[in-house]
């Protein structure tokens, strides 16, 4: 123990093996309902270790199970020793009532004069060291080695001081936890504010003051009419170019083949501010579903990076994990992304994430997209206005109502194209985008402050716990019985118990 710190007078180093009795657990046969039917005895497993004080469990056992499992008395220290979560944290808790435990748990029942709270808080204070020095190697699931945990060095303060330390730790951490709760409540409020900001934007309330001071030269209705005229003109120009390439004269009535974009159904839509108009997504741009991914296209002659739903995040398009597959030249022309395209997740395991938008801002490199992504190419409106309109639909649940599927939720291109979009005048769109971005920037700044404060709270929590178990949190009292006397008494009491449980002499031989 040469690497151990010097301790205050009256303190000692010890371990769980010396100051507590250790108990393991197990799982009675699930095929035998008599172990589980109408059970009243809590059976604690890692899934129940979500709070410091365990007051109940998801599963309960019948009395019959006590023939196989130990009943752990209240005020014992419960530790998870096998779980994937051990790669990140060490769950430790106290049980407020007698319990049984499963095989992924370990219970430590403190000897007389040793505080269960004192042991539990100390294990939490030394979480990193325990995980580093007691973890098993070569296991598929993260595990703690029982003997190593039992022998892990702990500091033992005099019994009276343990009580004072626990009281001070709980006082300070209670204040700290109250502050953390306020910070997390503020985080939720900022999320709600973002949604309120988006709602106000698409309803016109956000730019109400702007409208009172400005008179746009073109209304939303006039803008929509111009967009539709330009849309038809682009289609006609493309058709004429195709006829010319084929060496053919345009046939009679060729313009009649133009497919008008779907108009929005406004029967149940709210009234819009003066100068605004309802338009469909299809009227405002081109909607395209990405190319289907197939195993035979992976790699190939023309490996091309492509964007999938997993690449579209709250922060934008993430290019750190981009896959490749074969796209022919014609497919590249059809599915290559261009700066200003608005991408949306078409498929997701979570309905909340369907329709998550992002603007493609990467001018370098040829990237395509697959069929878990929708592309919207805006015409006559900005990418930023499109993005915030779709973000409002996602955050306010419009896409969630339309998505559906077995296991995977989908937002089809057809449904998306028909959705109504509030369309303000172009100048007001620019003002709207600016106000939303200002609001989001202010929220982001406040969130950064909260994140820093939460990290500081975590560090402060650890500092409190470290100070507690090195004798720096509460004053020392030289009149306290030293921990060495406490440990000597524990050893004597344990030896006496073992002597009673192992009778000697003639009767012991007869029992064999």
- What would you report as the Rg, rounded to the nearest angstrom? 34 Å
Mean pLDDT: 92
Biggest sheet descriptor? 5 strands, mixed
Tally of separate helices: 15
- CATH T-level fold name of the largest domain: Adenine-n6-DNA-methyltransferase TaqI, Chain A, domain 2
Domains (count): 3
Shape: elongated
The CA-CA distance between the termini, in Å, is 42 Å
Low-confidence sequence ranges: 506-512
Instruction: Name the CATH architecture of the largest domain.
Output: Alpha-Beta Complex
Regarding CATH, which class of the largest domain?
Answer: Alpha Beta
Number of strands: 23
Strand order of the largest sheet: 2-9-6-7-4
Estimated share of beta-strand residues:
15-25%
How would you name the CATH homologous superfamily of the largest domain?
A: DNA methylase specificity domains
Residues in helices, as a percent range: 40-55%
Overview of this protein structure:
The protein is an alpha+beta fold. The chain has 3 domains: 12-158, DNA methylase specificity domains (Adenine-n6-DNA-methyltransferase TaqI, Chain A, domain 2, Alpha-Beta Complex), CATH 3.90.220.20; 163-215 and 426-476; 261-424, DNA methylase specificity domains (Adenine-n6-DNA-methyltransferase TaqI, Chain A, domain 2, Alpha-Beta Complex), CATH 3.90.220.20. Helix content is 41%, strand content 16%. The protein has helices at 16-19, 116-125, 127-134, 146-151, 159-203, 208-213, 220-246, 281-284, 329-335, 383-395, 398-402, 413-418, 426-468, 483-501, 505-511, and strands at residues 12-15, 20-23, 41-44, 53-54, 59-61, 77-80, 92-95, 100-101, 105-110, 153-156, 277-280, 285-289, 303-307, 312-313, 316-317, 323-326, 342-345, 347-348, 357-359, 368-369, 373-378, 409-410, 420-423. The strands form 8 sheets. It has a 5-stranded mixed beta sheet. The model is unreliable at 506-512 (pLDDT under 50).
């Amino acid at each position: 123990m040469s690497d151990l710190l010097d301790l205050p007078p009256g303190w000692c180093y010890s371990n769980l093996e010396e100051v507590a009795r250790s108990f393991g657990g197990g799982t009675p046969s699930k095929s035998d309902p008599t172990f589980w039917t109408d059970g009243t005895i809590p059976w604690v497993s890692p899934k129940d270790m979500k709070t410091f004080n365990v007051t109940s469990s998801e599963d309960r056992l019948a009395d019959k199970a006590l023939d196989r499992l130990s009943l752990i008395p209240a005020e014992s220290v419960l530790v998870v020793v096998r779980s994937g979560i051990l790669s990140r944290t060490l769950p430790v808790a106290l049980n407020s009532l007698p319990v049984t435990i499963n095989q992924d748990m370990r219970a430590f029942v403190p000897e007389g004069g040793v505080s269960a709270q004192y042991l539990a808080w100390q294990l939490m204070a030394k979480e990193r060291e325990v995980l580093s020095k007691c973890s098993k190697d070569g296991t598929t699931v993260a595990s703690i080695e029982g003997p190593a945990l039992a022998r892990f060095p702990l500091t033992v303060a005099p019994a009276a001081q343990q009580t004072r330390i626990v009281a001070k730790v709980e006082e300070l951490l209670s204040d700290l936890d109250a502050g953390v709760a306020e910070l997390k409540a503020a985080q939720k409020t900022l999320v709600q504010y973002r949604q309120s900001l988006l709602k106000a934007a698409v309803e016109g309330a956000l730019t109400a003051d702007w409208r009172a001071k400005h008179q746009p030269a073109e209304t939303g209705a006039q803008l929509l009419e111009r967009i539709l005229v330009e849309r038809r003109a682009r289609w006609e120009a493309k058709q004429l170019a195709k006829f010319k390439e084929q060496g053919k004269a345009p046939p009679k009535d060729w313009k009649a083949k133009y497919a008008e974009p779907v108009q929005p159904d406004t029967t149940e839509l709210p009234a819009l501010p003066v100068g605004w108009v309802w338009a469909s997504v299809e009227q405002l741009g081109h909607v395209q579903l990405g190319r289907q991914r197939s195993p035979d296209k992976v790699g190939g002659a023309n490996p091309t990076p492509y964007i999938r739903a997993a690449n579209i995040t709250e922060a934008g398009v993430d290019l750190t994990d981009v896959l490749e597959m074969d796209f022919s030249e014609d497919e590249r022309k059809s599915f290559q992304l261009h700066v200003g395209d608005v991408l949306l997740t078409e498929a997701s395991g979570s309905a909340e994430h369907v329709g998550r938008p992002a603007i493609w801002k990467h001018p370098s490199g040829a990237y395509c997209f697959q069929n878990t992504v929708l592309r919207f190419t805006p015409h006559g409106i900005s990418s930023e206005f499109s993005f915030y309109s779709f973000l409002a639909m996602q955050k306010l649940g419009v896409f969630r109502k339309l998505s559906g599927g077995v296991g995977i939720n989908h937002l089809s291109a057809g449904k998306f194209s028909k959705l109504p979009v509030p369309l303000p005048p172009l100048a007001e769109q620019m003002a709207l985008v600016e106000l939303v971005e200002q609001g989001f920037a202010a929220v982001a700044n406040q969130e950064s402050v909260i994140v820093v404060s939460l990290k500081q709270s975590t560090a402060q929590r650890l500092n409190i716990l470290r100070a507690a178990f090195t004798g720096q949190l509460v004053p020392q009292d030289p009149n306290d019985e030293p921990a060495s006397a406490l440990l000597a008494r524990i050893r004597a009491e344990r030896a006496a118990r073992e002597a009673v449980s192992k009778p000697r002499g003639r009767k012991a031989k007869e029992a064999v």
